[in-house]
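Mods, move this if it's the wrong board.
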Amino acid sequence: MSETVLITGASGLLGRALVDRFAAADFQVLAHCHRHPGKDNDHVQWLAGDFSASKGIGDFLRKNEKTLRQCRYLINNYGPITLRPTIAVQGKDLLADFQQQVVPAVDITHFLITRAPLQMVLTIGFEFSGEIHAYQKILGYAMAKNALLLLTRSWAAAYPRVCFNLFSLPSLEKAKVLPKQAQTVPAELVADRIFHILSRRRSGFHYRYANPPAASKK
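Not the wrong board. Structure tokens:
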């Protein structure tokens, strides 16, 4: 019997690569999207949901509860990027970014832990933020993704029966925001690495940047 994986943000750059990779491995893929679904087939079922507010997340979970109860794997990939210079960031912007990045991951993970035979969770997040120049254009997004590291560690301690992983993305080809002179990686290769991480059935933290850059000496 095929195992079921829920992939949020499945219509994005990495999301579609993840859908293709898991479907090719005979998984039953539940592919969440907001506006741009693909076509259902024998291995992929698209589920629409607006995660920009808590109500939309709740509606998505209630509407698809029976289907989601099959999930053994969860990939928290949802999280649109908003470009905003650090100097222009206000409190309301940070709230919006945390709503987009953190709240869906928390609510969906908790839902599946309590209602499904969940075994593995992989969340896309950052291990640190603020020092990398590119993050200065997406500070709220980076802060929210960094918060997912703390959540992953807390979940791993609270739910030892579930394997939790945090994956910090390299720079993807065709991404909207790229550091200067970034070495980019095709989304398909990243999706393949994520697939193999989950195949190991272990918890871990998979970082793009091992350490923050050293402070320059004056």
